[in-house]
Amino acid sequence: MKWPLVILFTLPWIGITAQERLATPVNEQQLESQAGREEGITEDDSQWQQLEYLQKHPLNLNEATGDELKALRLLTDLQITNFLLYRQLLGSLLHVNELQAVPAWDVATIQKLLPFISVSDQKNMAARLGERFKQGEQTLLLRYARTVNTSSDYKKTTEDYLGSPTAVLFRYKYNYKNLLQYGITGDKDAGEPFLKGAQKNGFDFYSFHFFARKLGVIQSLAIGDFTVNFAQGLIQWQGMAFKKSADVLAIKRQGPMLQPYNSAGEYNFHRGVGVTLQKGIVQCTLFGSMRKLNANLAVDSLFPGSAYITSIITTGYHRTLAEMNDRYNVQCLTTGGAVKIANSRSHIGINAVHYNLSKPMRPAAAPYDQFAINGSNWSNYSVDYSYTFRNMHVYGEVAVDKLMNRAMIHGLLASLDPKVDMAIVYRNISSRYQSLFSNAFTENSFPVNENGWYAGISIRPAARWKLDVYADVFRFPWLKYQVNAPSGGHEYLVQLSYAPNKYIDMYTRFRHETKGSNDADSVSSSLPSPVPVTRLNWRTHINYRVNRTIELRSRVETVWYGSSSQQKETGFLFYTDVHVKPAFKPFSFNARLQYVETDSYNSRIYAFENTVLYNYSIPASFNKFLRYIINVNYRLMPRAAMQQRKKYNCLLSLSCAQSVYPAETAVEATNTAVETYSRSDIRLQLIFTAR
Fold first, then answer.
1. Distance between CA atoms of residues 527 and 314, nearest Å
2. Helix/strand/coil for 581
3. Is 343 helix (H, G, I), strand (E, B) or coil?
4. How far, in Å, CA of 38 to CA of 599, rounded?
5. Where are the domains positioned within the chain?
6. pTM of the predicted model, to two decimals?
7. Rounded distance between C-alpha atoms, residue 239 and residue 257, angstroms
8. Is 13 helix (H, G, I), strand (E, B) or coil?
């Protein structure tokens, strides 16, 4: 009965399936947008590892659960719900092309999924425990990185470092079909000591994880390091999550509550035990964590023997004596849990998390920090929900903290037409609401002190064309850092994408943002008043696939920055990339040439940079410089051997990047002018895989 349907949908796919694009494991545009909001980019590469694994071991859509589809982070909840209902109604898929018949699924979405999915009628039998430990894939990663900079300013900055300028990452991981994972990670940042001083045991940071799935009633079991993701992130969200970007429908936090953690970031995870149990429509998650945090401490003048926390440090750097003194000086005990009742269309859940710190936190004297967490324990509680009705999906979370300060987020995803999708988010978060390890869909870095409305629409007016638009209006009821009064702002983005054929796709984007910032030129220098500051970005990007081997990418971006009381600033960025990946050859490489010129740091521009596998950077580009990047990969066992099911494989990668700044006026007469304003970044990585 289904074969005519499959044949009907196969014809439009003749050009689509042939378009074997170089797989991008993370959304570059979302990462660039996040970096531009000064939120920082975490070192959590778990999603990248997961998608890379799925390229070799695709997810069988006929067996995939809702949580497994959410873990891809490539689909909206509306798309996932519609797919599960489609499969429940019509049975297993016969071909991947049949996905076009699923409501709210478009060609662009399916293209993103193709490298990571398969369709099979084979049932995955529950593997015995012995098979899980013997038949998995083992991966060993070794990475060496170093920045070479001959400038005197750089030498002055690093002369107090206790260790060498070399950064080293070690990671061993075992994975059996995502049913069993375990591994260990060791990380040394540049400037940290290694095998000496306070680090006689080697690496500055160690991480161990053991994670099992689908053990009868036990859906997930985490021992060691893991992340916890609850609801919409108002009380807890430690995995990677994005905010506003050109992907205007990516507004909902979604993913399994427990996930293994084996990245190099030293802050945003738990260390202990977590378990998810499921019986019928009821799911229960419990976890407990005991770990040490880095913190700035101060001594109470009234009680000289006691100390309190002025701030928690999230960078993970331990390069100097001062940073060593702040290392692991606070113990944090975290407990929490969630109960969820869910069916194919809806769910409702209750979530809670509680913290006990070995030393109390005390707000700083700054007015904007008046409502910060105070004391040695804290709690957050929330209720979340979702419901899908036909082509509409509503969801939300309502949370309170220990002092009953409230926060809420409600959202809507709707498919108005086969060519039109819409998203709406409302958030109302008290200026007094506080939380730890949280990350919600807000303008602020953390869910605090914000009210706002977001609306986005994605339109496909004709074949090969796509228009994405969002508008966000927000207000901050209380003071913020560098904003000495209640303020607000708005942001708009319009992006037009065009893919005339399977070889070319391009987009042009305009983004406008206005929000308050203190006026440095205010008459009252002791208390500057906030003024609206506007940032405009215009970007045009094009990808051109010459053939199956070569792909070219180019971008031009301009930024305008300023306020009514400040001199206007501009910035400009241009780069061109070449990616070469010959089929059935053991090598591949890519290179970039980039030029940047901005008036100052205020008019900076961000651009995603590929380096070695599982590693990337998004530096703030400002001033005037020329930069080049060269990445080379060589597989010591060719792909042809891999296709013959050889058991061993080794990937060697080298990345070299250099920024060349023109000699500044003050040093133009010196012989080392160019060297003074030049820096080089070198990364060497070896990945050994055994199956």
1. 29
2. coil
3. coil
4. 19
5. 26-124+200-441, 463-547, 551-658
6. 0.90
7. 10
8. helix
Alpha-carbon span 610 to 681, nearest angstrom: 12
pLDDT digits (tens, 9 = 90+) for 552-609: 999 999 999 998 777 899 999 999 999 999 988 899 999 999 999 999 999 999 999 9
390 or 580, which is more confident:
580
Query: How do residues 105-162 score in pLDDT, each as one tens digit?
Result: 888 888 888 888 888 766 555 556 677 888 889 999 999 999 887 665 556 666 789 9
Question: What's the gap between Cα 459 and its chain centre?
Answer: 26
432's torsion region: left (phi>0), alpha (psi -120 to 50) or beta? alpha
pLDDT at 203 over 90: yes
Full DSSP string of 270-290: EEEEEEEEEETTEEEEEEEEE
pLDDT of residue 319: 93
Q: Which of 463, 423, 425, 427 is nearest to 444 (CA)?
A: 427
**Residue 560, CA atoms < 13 Å, CB-side half-sphere:** 9
Three-class SS of 352-394: EEEEEEEEEECCCCCHHHCCCCCEEEEEEEEEEEEEEECCEEE
The Cα–Cα gap between 81 and 87 comes to: 10
The first and second tokens of residue 79, run together, are 């798309």
Beta-ladder partners of 483: 480
- Residue 449 and residue 455: Cα distance in Å, rounded? 20
Q: Which residues contact 681 (CB under 8 A, 6 or more apart)?
A: 145, 146, 147, 148, 655, 656, 657, 658
